[in-house]
Amino acid sequence: MTDRAEHPAARRRYGGLTLGAVAPWVIGALLLAVMPYVFASNSAITIMNQMAITIVFALSYNMLLGQGGMLSFGHAVYMGVGGFGAMHVMNWMEQGVIALPLPVLPLIAGLFGLGFAAAIGIFSTRRAGTVFAMISLGIGELVASSSVIVVAFFGGEEGVSGDRTYGLPVFGHDFGSQTEIYYLIAGWLLISALLMYLFSRTPVGRMANAVRDNPERAEFLGYSARWVRYYSFCASGFFAGIAGGLFAVNYEILTAENLDLNTSGTILLITFLGGTGFFFGPIIGAIVFTLLQTVLSLHTDLWQLYVGALFVLTVMFFPGGLAGVIMMHVPPWRYGKVRALIRPYLAAVLPAAVGLLGLASFLEVLFHLRNAARGEEGMTLLWVHFSSHDPLVWGVIIVVTVAAFWLARRNAPALRAAWDFANTPPGADEARP
Amino acid sequence: MSPALQLENLSKSFGRTEIIRGLNLDIAAGERHAIIGPNGAGKSTLFNLITGRFAPSGGTVRLHGQSLRGLSPYQINRLGLSRSFQITNIFPRMSVFENVRCALLWSLGYKYSFWNMVSRSRALNEGADAILDQINLLARRDLPAGTLSYAEQRALEIGITIAGGADVIMLDEPTAGMSNTETDYIVGLIRKVTEGKTLMIVEHDMGVVFGLADRISVLVYGQIIASGPPAEVRANRRVQEAYLGAALEDM
Description:
Chain A is mainly alpha-helical and 433 residues long. Chain A has 2 domains: 17-270, no CATH class; 332-422. Helix content of chain A is 69%, strand content 3%. Chain A has helices at 19-38, 42-67, 76-95, 105-124, 129-146, 151-154, 178-200, 203-213, 215-219, 225-251, 261-274, 281-299, 303-317, 321-327, 330-334, 339-371, 391-422, and strands spanning 160-161, 253-254, 378-381, 384-387. In chain A, the strands form 2 sheets. Chain A has a two-stranded antiparallel sheet with strand order 1-2. The longest helix of chain A is centred in the last third of the chain and has 33 residues, at 339-371. With 251 residues, chain B is α/β, with parallel strands linked by helices. Chain B has one domain: P-loop containing nucleotide triphosphate hydrolases (Rossmann fold, 3-Layer(aba) Sandwich). Chain B contains 9 helices and 10 strands. In chain B, helix 3 (96-105) runs parallel beside helix 5 and helix 4 crosses helix 5. The model of chain B has no long low-confidence stretch (mean pLDDT 91). The A-B interface holds A 2, 7-10, 12, 14-15, 198-199, 201-207, 209-210, 212-214, 216-224, 227-228, 231, 235 and B 51, 72-74, 77-78, 82-83, 85, 89-94, 98, 101-103, 105-107, 110-122, 125-126, 129-130, 132-133, 138, 160, 164.
């Protein structure tokens, strides 16, 4: 053997818990704990509950897409099966068939999801790529359509509903209030996210990345690509099931909608928007999407159009998603050059944002002109009240939009130059004039 | 003792085209064996048959006496046979270190476990660093493998191939597309990391072949027309006629 004392690797330490590794989780836990005090209103807590459920679901989806390279069009099925299973258990609790505390329910839902994924994965994970995607689509359709056939489990058209307050009380809490449910969901979010993160650091989790990158090479390293995919698939089904259990606990009803392609497509969109390449990507995607869905939808009927546009722009220009955009700034940060970016950003991104707002205003006014009730001309946009039939309004919007885009375009080269400069390691840029 | 690798009457057809035609070959343990032959002779197909990528149409491959019939590549790999590829075949989005560490996982008994953290195993991480040290890529440790230079990627390919501790190593044109200096470097590397192992290598560069191999087999139209020590193969009339004449005069 080589002399270990001379070995540079001998001085490297393995396995120790570092502050950098623990800090994000501690901060996350604290943040989850104080959120209901910062945003105390009922609607805010409702939104946060929805957000947390979506985060668990999106993270479980990324175990397939980002970690394992499996593009699924039917992930809602595993969340749905978990959720329906939880609803039945909840009803048994109400009928006195079994006595369980409510916080256990998401775990049971996870086992439903795991069981279903274990059955489907046997054949669906034989291949990745298009074959996997098509099978997932088929299974998705199959299960969604069987919701009106297997009425005993899926409850037919009205779904399955129940009452969550019949569980064994936990320290005197019966989980009747939204805040109690918030802490239940937040706790499960933290546990699930941590377990999913740790899964990605295990041998099978690492090999999931290897199989994603190059399944054939993995086979020549002793691993069956199929079984590596299968284990990821089962784990993903488990956590999707937990998300379904949280959904059941929060809304006390599941319907066929929870299984359909629309839900499956949305979670793909959310995960991709947030970024599949980083663990925290889907978290950002879920937060941004839930905010758009709940807050933006209060203000405009066109919110889905904007979400769609945001998605297309992300796919085209930032395939790493929002997380990718954030992580792009790590090298400039390391080189201590972030400050060089601030001015060019303001000069280019600010006008671009104004331009996009102008474009959106144009669409809003057009939408109002075409769809508002006859005789109703007044509308409010960005706190300004005006008539959608006024040519002056149209003129202002068009001029501002065009001018803003022109300015953004004019300042774009300066931003590009600043970006290149900020990404050059210090020392390497000595040659610059 | 049975040979490390034993090919008995091996054949492979794609449709009506016979690529490997009743091939017999024994490779002794510890031997460095080179397969040479003109383009289209079936060298890569032979590699794919031995490693389980293709199923043979007829005949048997034995590894240390055990038949490999019906086994998948991953099962064959677990028996101690590892290969590299003609076209660089690594995990481009993972770091150089992760590439090697993944190659170590199975041999250290981790299998499909999801209750171990890879970062906590000394054997795993020090093992991976030791391999990186051997292939001189410690300085590139944390870069994505896809960003390495071509020669570095070829070195990584060899590192991944040997990492699992297989005792039969098969290298498919390890110096393809390299400059002379890079070739010398890779040959030195191969010599170092396959010390004491059985090596089977396909190579076009005759300098590499005659410098590295204990024995050479010449594959022409799916059959071995000559097999023996370099001097003997060089002197063989049939080999000279079939293939080597022009190449050997350059040497």
